[in-house]
Design goal:
Strand order of the largest sheet: 1-4-3-2-5
Largest sheet: 5 strands, mixed
Mean pLDDT: 71
Structural class: alpha+beta
Organism: Gossypium raimondii (Peruvian cotton)
Order of helices and strands: EHEEEHEH
CATH class: Alpha Beta
Helix content: 10-25%
Number of domains: 1
Protein name: RNase H type-1 domain-containing protein
Low-confidence stretches: 1-33
CATH architecture: 2-Layer Sandwich
Number of helices: 3
CATH topology: Nucleotidyltransferase, domain 5
């Protein structure tokens, strides 16, 4: 399988400090434009559900995917990221979604917790 890194909260009293590992690319640039700034707002899933946000990027010779799984209170429970072998942004997004589903099912949460997956619809459904 692909080389992916993932982490999970195993005790309720442990929470990931999301600010250390998850940030939007627009906020990472030192040359940000204030006129063309895109603002993202995360909406929580319905009570009792979990939400998995996935993202991917593909360049000519490299691709990667990542995701974060949060509960209905916004607490990050799972994080994954890593390089993948594919060509093109469409396939990279599909692999990110597939990886997220495999992770959720592998943890056994699919039996008792409903899931919402949020991804770049424009890329994955073309």
């Amino acid at each position: 399988m692909r080389s992916l890194m993932w982490a999970r909260v195993v005790h309720e009293d442990i929470q990931f400090m999301e600010g250390y590992w998850w940030c939007w690319p627009v906020n990472c640039s030192s040359l940000r434009s204030t006129t063309n700034k895109i603002v993202y707002h995360w909406e929580p899933p319905p009570p009792g559900w979990m939400k998995l946000n996935v993202a991917s990027v593909a360049l000519e010779d490299k691709a990667g995917c990542s995701g974060v799984l949060r509960d209905d209170k916004g607490v990050a429970c799972v994080l994954f990221y890593g390089s993948i072998v594919t060509r093109g942004s469409k396939m990279a997004e599909i692999i990110a979604i597939k990886t997220a589903l495999e992770l959720f099912i592998g943890l056994g949460w699919h039996v008792e917790i409903p899931l919402v997956i949020e991804f770049n619809l424009c890329v994955a459904l073309e």
